[in-house]
Specification:
Blueprint (H helix, E strand, L loop, with lengths): L1 H19 L2 E8 L10 E4 L5 E3 L5 E5 L5 E6 L2 E7 L6 E5 L9 E3 L4 E9 L5 E5 L15 E2 L4 H26 L2 H4 L7 H11 L3 H4 L6 H13 L20
Parallel strand pairs: 1-7
Antiparallel strand pairs: 1-4, 2-3, 2-5, 5-6, 8-9, 9-10, 10-11
Length: about 240
């Protein structure tokens, strides 16, 4: 009797668990083009489980009949689907922005159809390309970004200038250091340190076409000797030496 009771209980529990763990599968496409969409976010509103579509647009997510799935992604209108059964489904998402007239891009020597200002790319222009086989349809997804912000160009130029200045300063430091200067000047210790502080040239002076190292050191050394020893480390207003021959 007890054995039959256990079998009845198990017979009721197992189907219930199976129902509670129902899996929903499917594929997400772009509307009209049937291009499979990768990276679409799918959320079960009842359980808050989330799944992201793979390269083929496929998804697998836990979901029971009566629950709602929300499909969303960049550049596409979000869509909700009520699960009425758990058969494999096909979902078609509509692009978020209306397509504009054809744009000719001379710089890339290519024609692109459809464009819009994307808030996801700081309002830069993005475009769609037509399908080669079916020109009346778009391939789907962002095809190209036509231009970049001027502030980005300024930032890159500023970074490049900073790196160039750092490289130039490193090159000067490899020349104007105590070990290397000892090959040219009869200075040691504090005198050498004071000389380097006073006469290490600026990048503008060092990299000018008129700069000559030997001439610069000769002129600088003579000027250095004229400064009293007790004032050399404080005389930082000494005018720069041009280094011309």
């Amino acid at each position: 009797m007890l054995k039959h009771l256990l079998l009845l209980l198990l017979g009721g529990v197992i189907p219930a668990l199976a129902i509670g763990q129902t899996i929903q599968t499917g594929v997400v496409f772009e509307n009209k083009t049937r291009v499979t969409l990768q990276g679409i976010r799918i959320e079960n509103q009842a359980t808050h489980k989330v799944f992201i579509t793979d390269k083929g647009g496929s998804f697998t997510i836990a979901g029971k009949v009566g629950e709602v799935l929300v499909f969303s992604g960049s550049f596409y209108r979000a869509d909700t689907v009520l699960l009425t059964d758990n058969k494999p489904m096909e979902i078609f998402l509509v692009p978020e922005h209306n397509m504009l007239k054809q744009v000719n891009v001379t710089a890339t020597e290519a024609k692109h159809t459809g464009s819009f200002q994307s808030p996801d790319y700081h309002n830069q222009t993005v475009v769609y390309q037509p399908d080669e086989k079916y020109p009346q349809y778009y391939k789907g997804g962002v095809a190209i970004r036509l231009h970049y912000f001027k502030k980005d160009e300024k930032r890159k130029a500023k970074q490049a200038a900073f790196l160039k200045d750092q490289q130039q300063q490193d090159e000067i430091a490899r020349v104007f250091n105590a070990e290397n200067m000892a090959k040219y000047l009869p200075l040691k210790g504090k005198d050498m340190d004071d000389f380097l502080i006073l006469y290490t040239p600026s990048t503008k002076n060092y990299f000018s076409a008129a700069f000559n190292l030997v001439s610069y050191l000769d002129t600088s050394y003579k000027a250095f000797l004229k400064i009293p020893a007790d004032k050399r480390n404080t005389n930082l207003s000494t005018p720069p030496v041009s280094g011309k021959q």
